[in-house]
Amino acid sequence: MGPGSRDAVRDKLFPVISAFGKSAKEYIAVDVSEKSLLGAKEEVAVAFPHVQANVIHADFVQDNFRFGKSIPVELATLFGLTLCNLPVDPLVAGLPEKMLTASLSRIRTHFASASRNFVITQDANQDLESLRRAYMAQKELYLTLPHLMLRDLPIKGKFNPDGFDVDVEFIPSTQACAVSFIAKEAMQFSIKDENFQVKRGQRLYFHNAFKFDVATFTRCIRNAGFDVLETVVQAKNPCVLHVLKARPA
């Protein structure tokens, strides 16, 4: 699910298909991006001619679909961290876990066979210094967002797209790595019929990547209807891998 770029397909998916050898029969890419679907299908078809490559154009959380009713053994994979990029207030305790559990519950409904195997990764890094290094490397990209807002939205009043800075913080109560704009000056503007007043120094959250610890993540997994078969934790590597089996929906 969510195959990503061609490089991601080769780096993350190919080792999984290779591990199954000739017993791998079918690969189904699921994504909202037609470009990603086409790239994944072409890459798999060339590298593994014995594997039938198909696609499902869908959001793997929001949409209804089944992986394949004729597949005797299913193995769904979600390598990447998008499932924990949750559009919620990073200060509200308990809400992120509820959203993660709900997303995993939706994914469980996609399984069609009796096997229902699922491999998923999570980022458990809660070290603020390394999080700052990683996210602040994209600072210049983030700062283009206010300019895009001014270009694409009917903004009226005092709005300065250059009047923002970027900050990254870790919030222990919700385990959120929160990226926010910091207003360098006061602004007062409207978008259509909605008025906004921004104070100097005000923090405006625009991206949350929740870095759940392993205990919290596995609790959400179980509450969503999965059994944890194995959890792989490596020293000095914040990326944790979980091997799961979905209970019947």
Q: What's the quick description here?
A:
The chain is an alpha+beta fold. The chain has helices at 6-20, 34-47, 95-108, 128-136, 139-142, 145-152, 214-223, and strands at 26-31, 52-57, 75-78, 117-123, 155-158, 164-171, 176-183, 187-191, 194-198, 203-210, 226-234, 237-246. The chain has two domains: 6-125 and 211-246, Rossmann fold; 128-209, no CATH class.
Record the SSE blueprint.
Layout: H1 6-20, E1 26-31, H2 34-47, E2 52-57, E3 75-78, H3 95-108, E4 117-123, H4 128-136, H5 139-142, H6 145-152, E5 155-158, E6 164-171, E7 176-183, E8 187-191, E9 194-198, E10 203-210, H7 214-223, E11 226-234, E12 237-246
Parallel strand pairs: 1-2, 3-4
Antiparallel strand pairs: 4-12, 5-8, 6-7, 7-10, 8-9, 11-12
Account of the protein in words:
This protein has 249 residues and is an alpha+beta fold. It contains seven helices and twelve strands. The strands form four sheets. A four-stranded mixed beta sheet has the order 3-4-12-11, covered by helices on one side. The mean pLDDT is 91. A hairpin with a 2-residue loop joins β8 and β9. Helices cover 30% and strands 32% of the residues. The longest helix has 15 residues. α1 packs across α2 and α3 crosses α7.
- The value of Rg in angstroms is 21 Å
Could you tell me the CATH topology label of the largest domain: Rossmann fold
CATH-defined architecture of the largest domain: 3-Layer(aba) Sandwich
Strand order of the largest sheet: 3-4-12-11
State the helical fraction: 25-40%
Poorly predicted segments: none
- The total beta strand count reads 12
Largest sheet: 4 strands, mixed
Chain-averaged pLDDT = 91
Give the distance, in angstroms, between the N- and C-terminal Cα atoms.
19 Å
